[in-house]
């Protein structure tokens, strides 16, 4: 987004850059379109570029690993290129149109102005509503294109009639082989009554142990309901009471999986992903959490998300691609992601904090005889994970020196 103080300066830069470009390449670069601010390794037309510069119609912007580029358009609005993304500024009659060639792009409009993104065979119009801007994420991976509006809406124009996609839904285009909505995702392996599943048909039915769940289903637990779902790739997802989880999509060939978790506590034990580029993505209202063969817990609220890593590592960033910054959590770490801000500084969580999150997602309530003694932080974390994961049953952690035992139900 444009900063007011920068406006006159950038207009001057545009003018100077445009005059220079026209003098050097009068046919190649006819219009200065956007101001580029980048972090990490970014290229324009194959040339490594400084952190700030003006870009023109026809330019191709490419980001490397752990790098981002933000395009602030002269006409208003902005686009953020995530890492390993390539997009071109169109030369056609619609100024500011972006052509996404690969990677992930976040588009933000100004007010109700629209933005356009071209894909092979289709173009996307991102539009705000009721005077508010739009925010939309568009991903292109191995000829599969995913459009996910967060605010406003996206309208897809291709060979058929226009398709409008509103927040809370997504559209997928292309020739890849993602699992179609309604195909088997897994089954319920544990359940405490009071949970429901809503199928794509709109029907909502009670969910019990042994019931199947499908891609596209939304699972919802009530005040006393908890559930454990085992996916076909052997990953497990445990939901606390008052939780909402959507099994969004899965591509078995590329091992690309996404679930959307909007409310409650989620404990995820993600299976090892052997294929290069494979990811298991959990999106909340404020955070995007990327994992490979790891275990973590998430507490999702409308305005913030907490992420605890209990095994392996997870990468966390804001769900809004325009918010720059991500952190990597290792076992024992946690971070908080507020709405519209990058993740907080990585900290070590307390045993009490972990116990609360573990208990919230414990489908089988732990026996009262289980206690946590005054172990070191690392040993305590390991003990809690071992007890509440269900891998060991009825184990008693003896109290060591330095205080009495602490019940898992009591915060510390």
Separate helix tally: 3
Q: How many beta-strand segments? A: 33
CATH topology of the largest domain: Jelly Rolls
Largest sheet: 17 strands, mixed
Can you describe this structure?
With 412 residues, the chain is mostly beta strands. The protein folds into 3 domains: 4-174, Jelly Rolls, CATH 2.60.120; 184-351, Sandwich (Jelly Rolls), CATH 2.60.120; 363-412, no CATH class. The chain is built from 3 helices and 33 strands. It has helices spanning 7-24, 351-360, 377-388, and strands spanning 32-39, 42-44, 47-48, 52-56, 60-63, 68-73, 78-81, 86-89, 98-108, 114-119, 122-127, 135-141, 144-151, 153-157, 163-165, 171-174, 184-192, 195-198, 204-206, 212-214, 218-221, 226-231, 236-239, 244-251, 256-269, 279-283, 287-291, 295-300, 304-311, 313-318, 326-330, 333-338, 347-348. It has a 17-stranded mixed sheet that branches. It has a 16-stranded mixed sheet that branches. A hairpin with an 8-residue loop joins strand 8 (86-89) and strand 9 (98-108). The model is unreliable at 1-11, 13-29 and 365-412 (pLDDT under 50).
Features:
412 residues, mainly beta, Jelly Rolls, 3 domains, 17-stranded mixed β-sheet, 16-stranded mixed β-sheet, 3 helices, 10% helix, globular, disordered N terminus, disordered C terminus
Layout of secondary structure:
Blueprint: H1 7-24, E1 32-39, E2 42-44, E3 47-48, E4 52-56, E5 60-63, E6 68-73, E7 78-81, E8 86-89, E9 98-108, E10 114-119, E11 122-127, E12 135-141, E13 144-151, E14 153-157, E15 163-165, E16 171-174, E17 184-192, E18 195-198, E19 204-206, E20 212-214, E21 218-221, E22 226-231, E23 236-239, E24 244-251, E25 256-269, E26 279-283, E27 287-291, E28 295-300, E29 304-311, E30 313-318, E31 326-330, E32 333-338, E33 347-348, H2 351-360, H3 377-388
Parallel strand pairs: 9-10, 25-26
Antiparallel strand pairs: 1-4, 1-6, 2-3, 2-5, 5-8, 6-7, 7-9, 8-9, 9-12, 10-11, 11-14, 12-13, 13-16, 14-15, 17-20, 17-22, 18-19, 18-21, 21-24, 22-23, 23-25, 24-25, 25-28, 26-27, 27-30, 28-29, 29-32, 30-31, 32-33
